[in-house]
Amino acid sequence: MSVDDFVTWTSTTAGRWQLVDGLPRAMVPPLRTHGKLQSELARRIGNHLLEAGAPCDVIITPGIIPRLMSEHNMRVPDLAVTCAPFAQEERALTDPVLIIEILSPSNQAESWANVWAYTSLPSLREILVLRADRIAASLLRRATDDSWPTRPTDITDGALELASIGFSVPLADLYIRTPLRSN
């Protein structure tokens, strides 16, 4: 199936879908902790961008078309930030600077496959993978020569710094209203 076919396709099964290598793939509704992390990050990043007067927006569950097999892939991360002007409605962000995936135990392989596909986007500066089963994150940041590291930087305490949008927050604060914070 092509991306064009996918965006007009009507599934007989309710729910969210993404297109992976030409095949529609159902996305299971997230667990509560996953959803809480998604909303907490969206709120904090959105507030940061607004207060900074940045021309950027945080988008929840946007379509992202990686450059690899672009005719047959539309992935759906948890969050993305774009700084492009809002000129028209679009199903897929063409120029995100930051993509965030929240990693639940049930979707690890799929999420990491998406992460590596996202590295093909020229506008992308960082990819954050936030864990939903413990207080931890992994961060991929594009180097000044436009290369990506072969392994992410793991973060388990201290500040989470997102240079692409000038955002910093203590990592544990993102988990403040989840059961993980009390562990």
Account of the protein in words:
The structure is a single chain. With 183 residues, the chain is an alpha+beta fold. The chain has one domain (31-182): Alpha-Beta Complex (tt1808, chain A). Helices cover 21% and strands 28% of the residues. The protein contains three helices and twelve strands; from the N terminus they run H-E-E-H-E-E-E-E-E-H-E-E-E-E-E. Strands 3-5-7-8-9-10 form a six-stranded mixed sheet, with helices on both faces. The chain has a two-stranded antiparallel ribbon with strand order 1-2. It is globular and about 45 Å long. The termini are far apart.
In short:
The chain is of the alpha+beta class.
Question: What topology emerges from the helices and strands here?
Answer:
Blueprint: H1 3-8, E1 16-20, E2 23-27, H2 32-52, E3 57-60, E4 63-64, E5 79-82, E6 92-93, E7 96-103, H3 108-118, E8 126-131, E9 137-141, E10 153-155, E11 159-162, E12 167-170
Parallel strand pairs: 4-6, 7-8
Antiparallel strand pairs: 1-2, 3-5, 5-7, 8-9, 9-10, 11-12
Instruction: Report the span from N to C terminus.
Output: 45 Å
**What sequence of helices (H) and strands (E) makes up the elements?**
HEEHEEEEEHEEEEE
Rg calculated over all Cα atoms:
16 Å
Sheet having the most strands: 6 strands, mixed
As a percent range, the share of helical residues equals 10-25%
How many domains make up the 3D coordinates?
1
Query: How much is the average pLDDT?
Result: 90
How much β-strand is present in the residues? Answer: 25-35%
The CATH homologous superfamily is named: tt1808, chain A
Total strands: the figure is: 12
- The CATH class turns out to be Alpha Beta
What is the number of helices? Answer: 3
Which residues sit in consecutive blocks of at least 5 with pLDDT less than 50? none
- Give the second-level CATH assignment, the architecture: Alpha-Beta Complex
Question: What is CATH's topology name?
Answer: tt1808, chain A
